[in-house]
Amino acid sequence: MAGSNPLNIFQVSGRAMSAQLVRMNTTASNLANAGAVATSEAAAYRTMKPVFRTHFDAASNMATVDVEKVMSAGEAPTKRHDPGNPLADADGNVWEAAVDETRELVDMMEAARTYQNNVEVMQTAKSLITETLRLGR
Q1: In terms of Cα–Cα distance, which of 115, 107, 109, 124 is closest to 15?
Q2: DSSP 66
Q3: Crossing angle for the helix pair 9-32 and 101-135, nearest 10 degrees?
Q4: pLDDT (0 to 100) of residue 74
Q5: 119 pLDDT more than 90
Q6: 48 Cβ partners below 8 Å, 6+ apart?
Q7: Which end of the chain offers a freer environment for a tag, N or C, measured as fewer CB atoms within 10 Å?
Q8: Sign of dihedral through CA atoms 85, 105, 20, 119?
């Protein structure tokens, strides 16, 4: 994090939520491209996955997460003989994206659950702060 200000609970949860949103976006993209075909292996869609990196903040002794990058992962596209397909090459083959839809749905549910857990952390922290201020009156 830039500067020497320590991370607070809202920043920790907010960054975690941002990371999970990237995960949900890549999952949506993967699911949208399930079964997509291309004229070559190089042009075929490849599953994308975010790479998370823990960010430790020495000033607050808290850790959060950052998305380091989004990269291709998973199985290589599969060649399928489909001579009637307008995208077929000269040999009648197309390359189909190897998206594991079941795995993507599990990833989506995990990302949504983690996102919601961080929303709950923020709501709980806000309630505790509000209650503390109310008691201080």
Answers
A1: 115
A2: E
A3: 160
A4: 83
A5: yes
A6: 26, 29, 30, 70, 71, 72, 73
A7: C
A8: positive
Angle at CA of residue 25, ends 1 and 42, nearest 5°: 110
Q: What's the rounded Cα separation, in Å, for the pair 74 and 105?
A: 15
Residue 1's pLDDT band, with cuts at 50, 70 and 90, is very low
**In contact, 126 and 59? CB cutoff 8 Å:** no
Integer Cα distance of 41 and 75 in angstroms: 12
Helices then strands (H, E): number in the chain? 2, 5
Which three-class secondary structure string do you get for 108-137?
HHHHHHHHHHHHHHHHHHHHHHHHHHHHCC
pTM, to two decimals: 0.84
